[in-house]
Design brief:
alpha/beta, six-stranded mixed β-sheet, three-stranded antiparallel β-sheet, 9 strands, binds inosinic acid
Length: 183
């Protein structure tokens, strides 16, 4: 096949079924914890868009959604810690209960920057919900309040995560064959 998505997939790490049940579980936890709060879900684009879309449908209380687009300087597979806000939040977050939704925490530098930035705007609370975590790679102390899966130090794609903007539409999480980035 000319446009074969499977060409550089070396293995499936988390299946569609596993994703579905984990997202449901996270939604139940968040529903329970935010009963009397003013929940604002902040989706970090583009990576978290697919996870966030599934997650909010498993949260059974009223909520608002806002988005931020950030870009970290560095090569395509590592982050430098210098973060640029390409699109900021649309709404004020003063006195709101902010839940940042991320695709993956790697070094933690992106979220460290975002947490500091968001905290400075006077929210009532800020928590992190990340679908994936690579704890071995952490450079700063960031711990997600809600986590899907902890994974080993391998570059993964799918379910919103990209390599050079591709593979976001895979419905599962897969390990990318290093041959994909040798070219
Ligand atoms: P951090 O600042 O090092 O924690 O990097 C966080 C960002 O790097 C994530 O939001 C992803 O966009 C990207 N990233 C880190 N690891 C991976 C991976 O294995 N696959 C795809 N993107 C990744
Ligand atoms: Mg990304």
């Amino acid at each position: 096949m000319k446009n074969d998505m499977g060409k550089y997939i070396s293995k499936i790490l988390i299946t569609e079924e596993q994703i579905r049940s984990k997202v449901k579980e996270l939604g139940e936890l968040i529903t329970r914890d935010y009963q009397d709060k003013d929940l604002l879900v902040v989706c970090i684009l583009k990576g978290a868009m697919i996870f966030m879309a599934d997650l909010v449908r498993e949260i059974k209380i009223p909520l608002d959604i806002d988005t931020m687009v950030v870009s970290s300087y560095g090569s395509s597979t590592t982050s430098s810690g210098v973060v640029r806000i390409l699109k900021d939040l649309d709404e004020s977050i003063e006195n709101r209960d902010v839940l940042i939704v991320e695709d993956i925490i790697d070094t933690g530098l992106t979220l460290k920057y975002l947490m500091d930035n968001i905290f400075s705007r006077g929210p009532r609370s800020v928590k992190i919900c990340s679908f994936l975590d690579k704890p071995e790679r952490r450079k700063v102390n960031i711990v997600p309040d809600y986590l899907g899966y902890s994974i080993p130090d391998e570059f993964v794609v799918g379910y919103g995560l990209d390599y050079a903007e591709k593979y976001r539409n895979l419905p599962f999480i897969a390990v990318l064959d290093p041959k994909a980035y040798e070219k």
